[in-house]
Structure formats: C-alpha cells, structure tokens
Amino acid sequence: MAKKLLPVVQTAGLCKTFRDFWRRPKVEAVKDLNLEIRPGEVFGLLGPNGSGKSTTIKMLLGLLYPTRGRISLFGKSPTDVAVKSRIGFLPEETYLYPFLVARETLDYYGKLFRLPVSIRQERTEKLLEMVGLKHEAKRRIGEYSKGMARRIGLAQALVNDPEFLILDEPTAGLDPIGTRQMKDVIRALGAKGKTILLSSHVLSDVEDVCDRVTILYGGQQRAAGDIGELLSDRDVTQITTPALSQETLERLRDLVRRLENKDILDVTHPRAKLEDFFLKIVEEAQAARVQTSGARAGGAVPDFLAKATEASTHEIVESLVTASSGSEPLPIEEFKPPEPEVEQSREVIEQLMGTEATPEQEDGEQAREEKADNEGPRPTPRADKRVIDSLIDQADPKENED
Amino acid sequence: MKIALVFLVLIGIIVLGLPFSISGDSSLTGRVRSFMSYSLTATALLLGMLTIFMSRSLSDELSKRQILTLMTKPLPRWQFIVGKWAGITIFNIFFLCFTGALVYGMVHYIKVAYPPSDDRYDVAQLEDEVLIARHALPWKTPDFDRGADILFERNLEEGKYELRLDFDPQAERALLKEKLTARWRVVPPLGARQFAFHNVLCDRSPGNHVQVRYYTRITRYPADEIYRSYWIFGNPEKGTPVVAIPTQHVVGRFHTISVPAECVAPDHTLSVEFHNENPFPGERQAPNIIEFLSKDEVEVLFVVGSFEGNLLRLLILMMCKLMFLAAVGILMASVFSFPVACLASFTIYVLAGTRSFIMESMDWTTRSSFFATESLEDFAVIAASHLYRVVTYIIPDFAYYDGVETFVSGHNVSLAWVLQGVGVLVFVQTFAVLGLAVLLFHRREVAEVSV
Question: Do A89 and B76 touch (CB under 8 A)?
Fold first, then answer.
C-alpha cells in the first residue's frame, strides 16, 4: 500500500480578521478556509481583489498570524525557522534593496540560507542567466524597471532550490517573453516534483500551468478541484479540422441535425494568440542582434532547479518504446499538446465516406432522396482527401483491421 | 550610508578645525584642554544622533516591505534584531576609533605647534597635568563624633539645654559635629591644618612626583588677587623627607603643586600641613581666612596610567552609551514608524543625559507624602514625580558615565568605572532593552495592514 504523503500545506478553519488601532475587528479577510496542497502539484489560488489570497499566503509564511484556525507547513508551524529553508517566495511586489546590485542581492539571500560560497556563486550566475539579466547584473535594483525587478525577485525565490515555491502574481509587470518563461519555469519545476502555489489574476496563466485550483471570494472558498474537471464542459463537443468548404460544412450541419437532432452552435476560424505573434517579432529582433538595455530572453532553466526538461522526457519515452518492442524506436516528433477529441462515431465516418448506412440513416437518406427527387438531381459532394486521411488515422484500430 | 558619511565629515571638520578656533586660557594646557573637551563632547553628541538615525534602517525595511522577503528566509527574528544592533555597534566602533585617532593626532600637533620658549606654552605642565592619567584622592575631614560627644557633655553640665522644650540629643550631637567640621575646614590667619591622604599608591622612586591640587577660597579678596601661604609635606616619623613649598596663587582658582614622591610614606600615606601664613618676607599681605569647604577643593593626584590608555578607556565608556542608544533605537524602530521612533529615541537620550539633574530637582516632591497634599494639583505633581522616579531607574544616567571632563583634567578614567559601565549599561540595561525589542518584534505581524 502506497504511503500517503503528508500535504505540504494544510489549513483547518483558517480565519483572519484585521483590527483597527483600538483593536476593534474591522475586516474579515479570510473565513473558515480549509486548504490542502499536495506534494508535487501546481496549485492555483484565484479570486478577485480583496478575496483573501495574499492574506492567506502571508499567513502560510508566518508574516501574519491567524485569528483562528490552524496552519501546517510540511507538518510544522509556519513560524518554524527550519521550514523556511525549504520555501521560496515571490511576493506580489518585488521588495528588494534598491542600493544592491543584482549579483549582490542574490548573494545576500544565498547567505541567509547558509549556502557555501561556491554554490552561491554558481547559482547566482545561473539564475541571472535564466532570468535574462546577466548583462545588467551590475546595475542597482533601484534602477531596474518593474519587470526586471520582478525577474530578480523570481531568482531570489529560487536561490535555495526550494521544495515549495509560492508565487504571488508572478507575471505582474513581465513582458510576454518573461511571462512565457515564467510559465516554462513553473512547468519545469512542477515536472521535477516541486510543489508550487500560484496566486494570480491572469487566469490564462493559471489555466496553462496549474493542476488544481481554488477560488476565493470574500475570504471564503467558493470552488476547488482539478482544473480539468472544473473547466470541462460535457455539454459541448469541439472538433478541429483543416479548412472546410461551405458545402462540406452544410452537409455536416445536416448530418448532426439528423443524427443528434442538434444544431452546430458555432463554426469559426481560430485566431493565433497575440503572445505567439509577439514572441515571433521579438525572436526576429534578437536574431538580427538589435541592442537593448532591458531584459533579454532568458536562458534555460538551471540544472539545479529542473533536470526533467523536454529533451529528457523525449529520452524517457524513447527508452520505453525501445524496451517494449525490441525494435528500432519510431521517430518521435517534438512533443505536441494532445489533439482535441474528435467524434469517432462510426456512422459519421461511413456517412462521409459514402459507405453502408444504418437503417436509421437509410430512412433519413431515403427522405433526403425523396426530397432531392422533388427538387431535381443533386451533384454528389467530394470529400476533401485530407479530411478523409485524418479521419482514417483517428479511427478505431480495430475498425481499420476489419 | 550617506547620512553616516555626512556625520563622519562633520566630526572630521570639528576635530580638525577646533584647534584653530579656540584657545582656552591661551596657555598650551588650556588650549589642549579646551580642544579635547569640545571635540569629545561634540563627537559624543553627533555619534548619539547618528546611532539613532542608523536604527531607522529597521523602520525602513518595515515600511518598504523588504522585511517580507527577509522573514521568509531561515532567519530567526531574534537574530535579525541582534544583527541590526551589532551592525550599528560595529559602525560606532569604527567612528570612535576614527575620532580617537583624530583627537590623539591633533593633541600632539598642538603640542608641537607652539614655541616652547614662550612661558604660556609650557609643554612640561601639559604633560604633567593633561597628557597623563592621574588618580585623584580627595581629602577627608577628621571624624568629629568624639569631639561632638565631649562638647555635648560639657554643654549639658553647663545647663545649656535646660530651657529648651524641643531638645533632641541626637540632633544636637549631629549639629555639634557639623559645627566642629566646619570650623576645622576654616583656617584662621596664622593658623594651620594637618591632612593625611591614605592609599597614595604611587611610584615612590626618586625623580617622580605627586601633585596636590587645591582651591583657594578666602573671605576678603586682596587687591592684587594673589594670596600667599605655604605647605609642608612629609612625615619624618615615617622616614620620609620633609618638603616645604611656599605658594602665591591667584585666588578663586584651582592650583596644582608638585611634591616629590619620596614624601609619601611606605604605608602609602602622605602627610600634609597647610599654613595660612605669608612665607615671602618682602611681600605684604593682609590677614585672611582660608576655607576648604568641599572635599574636592583639596586632592592629591598621582600617576596611574598613560594618556593613551586613558583615552582608550574613555572611548569604551562612550561606546557603552552608544550601545544602549542603539538598543533603544532598534526597540523603537521595531514598534513605531521612523519619525515616531526617532522622536522617542531622542527623548530617552535627553532623559538619560539629564537624569541626575531632574532627579535632584524632583527630590522634594518624591520625599513628600501623598497624604500631606492640600490640593489635587499637588497630588498630581507628587504622583508624576514618583512615576518618573520609577522610569529613571530603567533609563541610565549618562552624566554619571560621562568621562570627558575627568579625561580632560588629566584624571584617571578608572578601569573599575569602565567595567561598571560595561556591566550596567551594556550587560544589564542594553541587553534588557534588546530583549524587549526581540520580544515585541517576535509577536509583530510584519505584513500587518492598517484598517
């Protein structure tokens, strides 16, 4: 029986009430919050302004004391000093010393973790490389832009290679490159098995990286669970195809109407993300070696933080395939996100292919034929070959064997 | 850091500029004494202010929220507070070393900057009376308990107390003792008085000297303000040579006469006789009464250490006060914002500096009884003074540990005094304040917001 791992964070009935100068209760920021963050997951803490996200985070870190309830961090109190050596924290505003340069800042925080000099220096350089500020490392933090300071904030949160990383609005102030890199770092750390608590207003960022989320409102938990489960809408089916002709679209509408007695809700052309377009432009500028005094595209995630990179994933899968088949492994393409599910109804495929129809389809077909007879002969539509090929590829293997 | 640099420059300007702007009594000794007094007092004041300003770093970290990043690191809060205090203390050690070196250098510069042929610039006097560490033994009047008893018995026999209704024997004896002591301190014309200083632990080798410092207080000032008398030192019964030293000094000032150390007996006793008599036959002098009213008006001084050692001990005493101030600054900064913390720290600084003065001025109120008050106002005044008396037991007496005047007058800043300062100021009061700061900061919510 697998040993149940202790949650990294556990709260029970957590409450926080802020008082005024005369100690009268004024604002109930958190009410009866029961939170659990499991080891190795990326956990999202969402909510509108004033919902208690930052207050919760500060209580987890011992920066605020709860009015009622219990908190445990790695099974201990948040004020336990030893626990803090396992945590990295990026606050919602970057509170660093403006008179220190970037290198000194990371070195200073590294000293607080009692890291040996050599490790401190090595990590400082690698983190500066990662956040793209190696060339600006001798400038004082006070001279940095907000985004650049944010990057250094991330670097200081990672200097101790924490087991539990808390990121409060990590992408605030970052350009799209930095945002993308932040998400890459989060994914890489998550893949390594680190536990991450992410609080953000940018819902798309949370959606991209989190495993589980909880939504707060008025200091109370309103929803919580696995992000896939929370967001999936079982009432709608989405199919993605290459461009189709109008006639094919009409036939599809009729088919769905006939088979499912439902109308297709929406047919549109997808739009590229502005983020991708922006990154393309920046990459072109970098390829042309245009000068900049700001942040540059960061380097790879340092090895001391994330050893499970995409290449490693490639190797692992490759080795598994080799081990199972005993033959030369098939070339594996670059990792792609899973294709959206396509309706693999046998009837739909056969209908499109013009193969044997079912009795219901025959009735329907007969009705259409009768209508067509009344209207006159209709030309038989030609199915796009690419559609056919893709449908064949995605068909049930057993169907193919048959 | 910029503020610290400004203060450093200010101290440098003061210390380097003072020798050229003040002259004291125009003698070399006066110049050096004035320079050391002003420069060391100014340094103590400026460093006190700087210490309070430097503690603002804690207030800044709290207000600018850098504390949020710090407190999430494995850094115990008590270490953070003690570290802040240690940092300010190290700064102060550096500043004091810098100032001490400057003062030492300028003193020796002044010593060589003036022509030694000019009587006003007597280097030997400077080295004997200022650039030295001398222990001062004040004189002790004899105990007239026995004399008071004898006088009391005689008065009783003569029936002088028969008609007195409020006669109190104890009070009467005390009064008689006081009268005898007062009479003994007054030397009539052609009269003499004998003193004996004990524990004169000096080097009795030939060539060494001890000094007798005295204040001439007379009842009628002569026209030329000069009074003539003579002193006899030594005790042949104890095997010491006897030396007679005639003096003619300006009245109303302290004067110092050098006495051969051989006059001090092997049991470390120096026998002294003062004669209120003109020893200069060619000079006319009207008879006058000489009074030695205070125990400080006659003292014997002997060398116990060097100028350098004395300066070092003085700097340590100053350091003790700065360490306490640093702890107060940290305590206030851990609780209040910078302006309030600064104001509170300065208030305590002023209270510490004036504590003995305020305690003396409030003495009559604290001796008064609550039940003897006639109005609410009197009651409030007495209550406030009692409360203040309690508070001042917590706040140290900086005036007591002010060694500048002792140092400037060439007296020894004793090791016992320094150890007392270290023990009380540092180990008791400073650490108590630091402990309180640690306790308060430990309970403080550093991310607290005002609602």
Answer: no
Nearest to B449 among A18, A84, A89 (CB): A18
Q: Into which CATH architecture does domain A9-231 fall?
A: 3-Layer(aba) Sandwich (3.40)
Neighbours of B187 (CB within 10 A): 20
Structure tokens given for B212: 């007798």
3-state SS class at B148: helix
Say yes or no to pLDDT of B312 above 60: yes
DSSP 8-state symbol, B412: -
* Cα separation, B308 vs A71, whole angstroms: 60
Please tell me whether residue A49 adopts helix, strand or coil conformation: coil
pLDDT for position A215? 87
Structure letter (DSSP) for residue A145: -
Taking CA atoms, what residue in A is nearest to B445?
A: A64
Helix (H, G, I), strand (E, B) or coil at B72: coil
- The answer for B 60-79 residues in CB contact with A (under 8 A) is 64-76
Question: pLDDT at position A390, please?
Answer: 43
- Provide the residue type at A299 as one letter: G
Please count the other Cβ atoms lying within 10 Å of the Cβ belonging to residue A306. 23
The Cβ of residue B319 has, within 10 Å, a number of other Cβ atoms equal to 22
Rg over CA atoms, chain A: 28
ipTM of the complex model: 0.72
Is residue B246 scored above 70 in pLDDT?
A: yes
Of B65, B72, B76, the CB nearest to A87: B72
Alpha-carbon gap, residue B375 to A277, rounded angstroms: 86
- Across the interface, whether the CB atoms of B65 and A95 are under 8 A apart is answered yes
Cβ contact B451–A27 (<8 Å): yes
Residue A294: CB atoms within 10 A of its CB come to: 13
Residue B2 near chain A (CB below 8 Å): no
Domain boundaries, chain A: 9-231, 246-265+338-401
Which of B64, B68, B73 has the CB atom closest to A109's CB atom? Answer: B73
Interface test with A, best of B2, B64, B451 (most A CBs within 10 A): B451
This prediction's pTM: 0.75
- Residue A402, C-beta contacts closer than 8 angstroms, at least 6 positions apart: none
- Residue A196 has what DSSP assignment? E
Contact B137, B161 (CB under 8 A): no
Per-residue HEC secondary structure of A156-169 comes to HHHCCCCCEEEEEC
Mutual orientation of helices B338-353 and B56-63 as an angle, nearest 10°? 160
- pLDDT above 90 covers a percentage of chain B that reads 40
Q: For strands B192-197 and B270-275, give the pairing.
A: antiparallel
pLDDT digits (tens, 9 = 90+) for B109-126: 888 887 766 666 688 888
Cα dist from B22 to A47, A213, A344, B25, B315, whole Å? 71, 76, 104, 9, 23
Measured CA to CA, the distance from residue B313 to residue B214 in angstroms comes to: 26
Q: What is the arithmetic mean of pLDDT over B264-283?
A: 88
